[in-house]
Task: structure prediction
Amino acid sequence: MSHPSLVTQDLTIRFGGHVAVNAVSCEFRPGELTVIVGPNGAGKTTYFNLISGQLPASAGKVLKDGVDLTSMAPSARAHHGIGRAFQLTNLFPQLTVLENIRLAVQAKSGDGRRLFRPAARMTELTAKAERYLEATRLQDVSHVAAATLPHGDQRKLEVALLMAMEPDIYMFDEPTAGMSLDHAPDVLDLIAEIKHDQSKTVLLVEHKMDVVRALADRIIVLHNGELLADGPPDEVMSSQIVRDVYLGKSSEVA
Ligand SMILES: Nc1ncnc2c1ncn2[C@@H]1O[C@H](COP(=O)(O)OP(=O)(O)OP(=O)(O)O)[C@@H](O)[C@H]1O
Result:
């Protein structure tokens, strides 16, 4: 078994007297897609926020390849390979899809974000950007302004920008939320492709059980901020304790 790329150790956050994430210890490995499930308010998004740095931990640690990220800002964590889809505040709405991806490629390559570069360098960056454009099946809208994209394509652009950052850890929080049925499979295919890259670790928060079944190598269940179960999908979803937590929603997990 490969070494864990991401580890949370007793990760905890308290909001006043409320413990939203309570001493969650978990290891995540390259080549593995873990889906985080749990009822509303279980602490899933908060756990993500603690990993990506949007929220400071009250206790515990976040380690990436053994490096302690716990006190780092989100941007520093991104530099260490933590990639979260919604971190993409770097979108330029008036620029085209291709220009946005190229700027993300430039930013990653250390070239900064200036639009104008020597021609040869531009060609190289554009070629790379076009690869992400193709990977995310956005070729048809490559010259469309990002702001005017339909919702489904915007979500794909988020994935393209995330890929351009070349993170080791991909974090998706309900990636198909609000998407039409015809767009959702594209995004799920993309996530499946990322997971097939054995060097990447994928974490996914998801409510839709068909998505969970299609993608999960492993499921962890959070409940009241605590890690309730962790294991292979069939084992976790058929366990009595998980069924009890979802009581009243048993058809979803069945
Ligand atoms: N900034 C905050 N201040 C106070 N309480 C918070 C804050 N963020 C989250 N919480 C609380 O922490 C708990 C966990 O919330 P969280 O959003 O992580 O749950 P979730 O499992 O992602 O739920 P959902 O599936 O509904 O998105 C909730 O009780 C929520 O009200």
